[in-house]
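== Polypeptide entry ==
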Amino acid sequence: MEASAFLEKIEIKDNTFARQFETLVDGKLISVEYSFQEKKIFLTRINVFDGFNNDEFINDLLKNIMEIAYERKLKVVPILPRIALFFRKNSCYKDLLPPGIKI
């Protein structure tokens, strides 16, 4: 995947109990909630702390999550409009979308 050459790695913990990817910014939790069905991961919610509004960081976080999906051979179903917009702006990840989903 060519986009990974420009990817800024973010340390992400996959909290399978809470069903969310987690990272810390300034010691505060940011998470992306998910659910699984077959070989698909549904990204259902982005949680940030009050006052956080760094869209570039969220984009980098989502890019890192897309790399995890590639590694695990998962298809990604964007439930949130914010994540659908990410796919529109980052067409290099469109092959992660399941058949029949157009963004």
In short: The first strand starts at residue 13 and ends at 15. Residues 55-71 form the longest helix (17 residues).
